[in-house]
Amino acid sequence: MKVIGAGFGRTGTTSLKAALEELGFGPSYTLGEVFRNPEHVRVWEAARRGPAGEEVDWEAFLAGYGVAVDWPACSFYEELMEAFPEAPVILTVRDPAEWYESTRSTIHGLRRLTRGPLPVRAAFALAAPFAPGVAGTVRLAESLVWEGTFEGRFEDRDYAMALFERHNEAVRRRVLPERLLVFDVREGWDPLCEFFGVEPPDGPFPHLNEARKMRRRLLGLVVLSAAAPALAVLAGVAASVFLIRRVARSRQR
After folding, report:
1. Which pTM was predicted?
2. CA within 13 Å, CB half, 97
3. Sheet with 67-68, side-by-side order of all strands
4. CA dist 128 to 48, 117, 147, 210, 243, Å?
């Protein structure tokens, strides 16, 4: 592990990920890896349980990754610092009000869906076997972020923003200054490249706005959650009709 990201999601972590990979530090571990590897949920849940649970071998788990940013990694930046003592830490920062609105309109929207009306919750539950990556990510976000970090109070705007600021202050206190870069992605290449002692690339800094893409992804998850069980029901009905017809034909002979 070459770089540890301690900033919460929706603080420019997608832009940071792309920038670090362009500088040659990747590949990166983000929440998207849980979508692709739902079995990773067990590891992060074990880490959350701490000493009472299974000890995580971070070096083995994150082998092959050069960067860890965004949730769930930012929740364990201290454990990662201990496991990778040479890795510098980057704290991505953003205006608390902007961060809250961005988080609420994107990743928290999935929680509102999965905890919404009974038909929607039932659709997600039925879809889980067909989309384990979705189910695993929802489960991890619920236990680690919404109930763990925010103690079920994310919708309390003032509380969530205050916790966001406390987290950032805690990182500033706990990480040695020479190991820490406090970074606003709007600053571009210069502070990032100065921190690592490298020349800035010729191209522009990758300012990636994932909000629209994430909203489209949420819509896709809703469609998938409705479609998967519906297809299963249709398959069951078709199979039942087929069996009934076979039984009826056998009786006519």
Report:
1. 0.81
2. 0
3. 28-29, 67-68, 3-5, 89-92, 180-183
4. 23, 17, 20, 25, 27
User: Residue 166 and residue 175: Cα distance in Å, rounded?
Assistant: 14
d(CA 127, CA 119): 12
In CATH, what number is assigned to the domain containing residue 222?
3.40.50.300
Cα 172 to Cα 6, 90, 166, 189, 213: the distances in Å are: 10, 10, 10, 21, 31
The total number of structural domains in the chain stands at: 1
At 50-109, the pLDDT tens digits run 765 568 999 999 999 999 999 999 999 999 999 999 999 999 999 999 999 999 988 887
Buried/exposed 155-177: b ≥16 CB within 10 Å, e otherwise: eeeeebeebbeebbeebeeebee
Identify the domain containing residue 117 by its residue range: 3-252
